[in-house]
Amino acid sequence: MDPIFNNTENAFALKTDSQLDRAYFLFKLISNQPLVRIGTAVTNFAIKAHLPVESLIRATVFDHFCGGTTEEECLPVVDNMFQKGVCSVLDYSVEGKEEEAQFDATLEKILKILNFVKEKDAIPFAVFKPTGFGRIDLYEKVGNSETLSSEEQAEWERVLHRFDVVCKKAHEMDVALLIDGEESWMQDAADAIVAAMMLKYNKEKAIVYNTLQMYRWDRMEYLQQLHIDAKAKGFHIGMKLVRGAYMEKENNKAKEEGYTSPICESKAATDANFDTAVSYMLDHLECMAVFAGTHNEESSYQLAEIMKEKGVPNNDPRVWFGQLYGMSDHISFNLAKAGYNVAKYLPFGPVRDVMPYLIRRAEENTSVAGQTSRELSLLKQERKRRKI
Q1: Separation in Å, CA 72 to CA 68, 117, 166, 349, 377
Q2: Which of 336, 338, 331, 264 is nearest to 296 (CA)?
Q3: Which of 37, 74, 120, 270 has the fewest C-beta atoms under 10 angstroms from its C-beta?
Q4: What is the pTM (predicted TM-score) of this model?
C-alpha cells in the first residue's frame, strides 16, 4: 500500500486553525509525563471537591476527545466526520458504577443508543462495557467458578438478562454491537457471556462482537478455540482487536498476587500478536468479521495489504478500521479517503462522569512510545502547511 498517512491536509481537513492549535497544545502537555501525573491528581481532587472546573475541562480536553454530553450533542461531530467518509461509534463513557439502579440506567441508555443509531448510516455500531451491566467483583467470582450466594446468583441473572436484552435488540435492528474488553480477572466471565450471545444471535452474520486485547499472550489460543466452537455450532465470530489499555494495572496485580502476568513480555511481542490475529481473521472471513482498533500505522498498512492480496474489497462490510476520536486522524481520514471502512469511537456523557476515560487517554498517550510525538509532528506539519 502506498504510504498515505503523511497527508495532513486530509487528516485535519475538519479542524479549524484554532482547533489545530488546541490539539497541538494538548498533545504538548500530554507529552510531559510529570505534568500528566500532577494534572491527573489535581483534576481528581477538583472534581471530588466539587470545584468549578467543568467549563475549563469542557473547553479543552473534553471537547478534543469527546463528542458531547448527550447523543444529540454528538450529531454535528458525527455528521462532519461522515462527510469525509469516517463513521462514528457512540460510546457512553461513564465508568465505575456499582449499583443495580445504575446498571439498569446504563441498559436503558444503550437501548436508546440502538434506536438512535438505527436511523444513522454514519453510526454503524453500538457499544458497551461489561462492567456497565454488573459489578467487576461479581464477574471475577463467576470467572473463578466461586460459589455465589443466593443474592449474588440473582444479581448475576440480572447481568445475563441485560446482555441478552441488548444483543436481542441489536439482532432485531440489524445493528452491529461491540462489547469492550476489560481487566483480565473479570474477562473470562464476560467472554463466556459474549460467546453465548454469538451462538444465539450470530447465525447469519456477525452482529455481536467481543474484544480481544492482544497484549495478552493467551488471546490467539482463545480465538482459535472460539473458531473451532463456531464451526462446530454454526455461528459467526465478530471480534474487535486492540492492543489493550490496562497494562500497568495488569502487571501490578500479577506482581502483588504472585501469578504470571497475562501481558506479553514486550511491545514487539504484542505487535506480533495483534498482527497474527488480524491475519488469522482475514484468512477466515467466511465466518468472521473484524474491527481492527489500532493507532499503529504499520498494523494498518499490513491489514490493507492483506486485503489487497486476498482480493477483499476496501469497503468489505466484514472489515473495519477503528481509532479513538481526537487521536490518529492521519490514519482514520486517509484510510477513509482510500475507500476503507473506518469508524471513530466517539465518547460522550456528563463531563464529571467521563473524567476516568479522559484521564486514561492522557496516561495512555504518555506511556505509548512515539504516539504523542507522532501526533505533534503531524500537527506541526499541518500548521506549517496552512501558513504557506
Answers
A1: 8, 11, 21, 11, 33
A2: 331
A3: 37
A4: 0.94
